[in-house]
Amino acid sequence: MSFSVSDMIWAIINFLILVVILNKFLFKPLLKTMDARKDEIKQDLDAAAQANAEAQKTKEEYLKQMEEAKADAQQIIVQATKIGEETREKLVNQAQEEASRMAEKAREMIRLEKDEALRQLRDEVASLVVMAAGKVIEQTIDLEAHEQLIREFIAEAGDAS
Amino acid sequence: MFATPVYAAAEGSAEHGGALFTLFGLEVTSVTTTMWGLMLFLTVFSFLATRKLGKVPTRRLQIFMEMGLEQILGFLTGIIGDEAKTKRYFPVLGSFFILILSSNYSGLLPGAGHIPGLQAPTSTLSVTAAFAIVVFFATHYYGFKEKGWGYLKHFVQPIPILLPLNIVEEFTKPLSLSLRLFGNIYSEEMVIVGLFSLMPLFLPVPMQLLSLLFGFIQALVFTLLASIYISTATAGH
Predict the structure, then answer these.
(1) For residue A25, which residues of chain B lie inside 8 Å, CB to CB?
(2) DSSP A4
C-alpha cells in the first residue's frame, strides 16, 4: 500500500470536473423536468379543485333557484286557488243577488199588474152596476127577477176576479 | 499453506502498477485512468439519460434515473431536513454518490487490478483521501457561506475549553471518511483476489455478489456522512 500525491491531486481535479459535468448534464435537466412536472401536476390539481368548487357552487345555486321556483309556484297556486275561490263566491253572491232582485222585481210587477187589474175590475163593475141599474129601471123587474139579476152579476163579477 | 500465495497474489495484483505516464508533471496511474474512464462513461450516460426528457416519462432510462435521483434526494433531505438546502448541496453530494458507487463497481470488472489502466479508484487511500479532502473543504466553505464568520463560533461551543477537541474532530472526520471507504473496498478486492487465486471459477462469486452490496453501502455511507458534516456546519444555532 502506498500513497500517491499525484493520484490524490488527479482525483480532486477529476471529481471537481465531474461535479460540473453531472450537474450540468444530469442533475439540472432531470430536476428541472421533475420540478416542471410537479408544478404542472400541482397546477392541474389546483385547477381541478377550483373547477370542482365552482361546480359545487353552481349546483348549490341551481338547487336554491329550484327551491325558490318551487316555493314561488306553490305560492302562485295557492294565490290562484284563493282568487278562484273568491271569484266564485263573488259570482255566486252576485248571481244570488241578481236572482233575488229579479224575483223582487217580478213580484213588484205582479203586484202592480194585480192592482191595475183590480182597478180595471172595479171600474168595470161600476159601469156594469150602472148598466144593470139602468136595465132594471127600464124593464120594471119584480123582486124575483131582481134577485136573479144580482146573483148573475155576482157570479159574473166573481168570474172576472 | 494457503496464506502465503494468497497474500502474495494480493500484494502483486491490487497494488499500484506504478505510473503509466506523466501529464502536467503529475504521474498518471491506473487509478486515474480508471477514473477518467468512469467520467467518460458517466458523461455519456448523462447525455443518454437526459436525451428527450419528457414531462410524461416514457423512456425506461429516464424513469430509472428519476427514481434514483428522487431516492437520493429524499434520503439526503431526510438528513439535511430542508429540500431547498439539499438541492443547493446536491451537485457535490450526488456526484460523490455516483462517482464512489461507480468506482466501487469498477473493481468488479473483469481484470480490475490486473490489467494496467484499470483499478478501482476507491481501493486506494490516495483517492479516498482526495474525496475526504473535498468534503473537508466543502464543509467549511458551506459553513462560512451560510453563516459568515459566525461559523467559527461552533468551535468554542458548548464551552471554549473544547476548542482543541473540536479542531481535532474536524481533522478526524476526513481521516475516518477516507480510511473507511478505502479499507472496505481495498479489503473486498483483497478477498476477491485471494479467492480467485485459490479457485478462479466459482469461489469468488459470493464475495463479488457481496461486493455489489458493500459497494453500494459504502457509497451511501460516505454520502451520508458528508451530508451530515455539511448540514451540521450549516445548521443555524
Answers:
(1) 43, 46-47, 50
(2) -
Cell of residue B216, nine digits: 453500494
Of all residues in chain A, the one with the smallest CA distance to B87 is A31
Q: What is the pLDDT of residue A59?
A: 94
HSE, CB side, 13 Å, CA atoms: give it for residue A117: 9
Q: Indicate whether this model's pTM tops 0.90.
A: no
Measured between CA atoms, the residue of chain B closest to residue A20 is: B91
HEC states along chain B?
Answer: CCHHHHHHHHHHHCCCCCCCEEECCEEECHHHHHHHHHHHHHHHHHHHHCCCCCCCCCCHHHHHHHHHHHHHHHHHHHHHCCHHHHHHHHHHHHHHHHHHHHHHHHCCCCCCCCCCCCCCHHHCHHHHHHHHHHHHHHHHHHHHHHHHHHHHHHHHCCCHHHHHHHHHHHHHHHHHHHHHHHHHHHHHHHHHHHHHHHCCCCCHHHHHHHHHHHHHHHHHHHHHHHHHHHHHHHCCC
Average pLDDT, chain B: 79
Query: B187-220: per-residue pLDDT in tens?
Result: 888 888 788 888 777 877 887 788 888 888 988 8
The three grid cell numbers given for residue A93, joined into one nine-digit string = 253572491
CA distance B234 to B228: 10
B125-147 vs B83-106: helix crossing angle, rounded to 10: 170
Q: Tell me which chain A residues have a C-beta less than 8 angstroms from the C-beta of B96.
A: 15
Verify whether the Cβ–Cβ distance A12 to B133 is below 8 Å: yes
Judged by CB atoms closer than 8 Å, whether chains meet at A8 and B27 is answered as: no
Phi and psi angles of residue B16, each rounded to the nearest 5 degrees, phi first: -55, 140
Identify the pLDDT of residue A53: 94
Distance CA A154, CA A125 (A): 10
Chain B stretch 130-189, residues whose beta carbon is closer than 8 A to a beta carbon of chain A: 130-131, 133-134, 186
Q: Using 50, 70 and 90 to split pLDDT, how confident is the model at B5?
A: very low
Sign for the CA dihedral angle at B113, B116, B118, B119 comes to: positive
**Neighboring chain A residues of B39 at a CB cutoff of 8 Å:** 14, 17-18, 21
> E strand or H helix at A70, and its extent?
helix A28-139
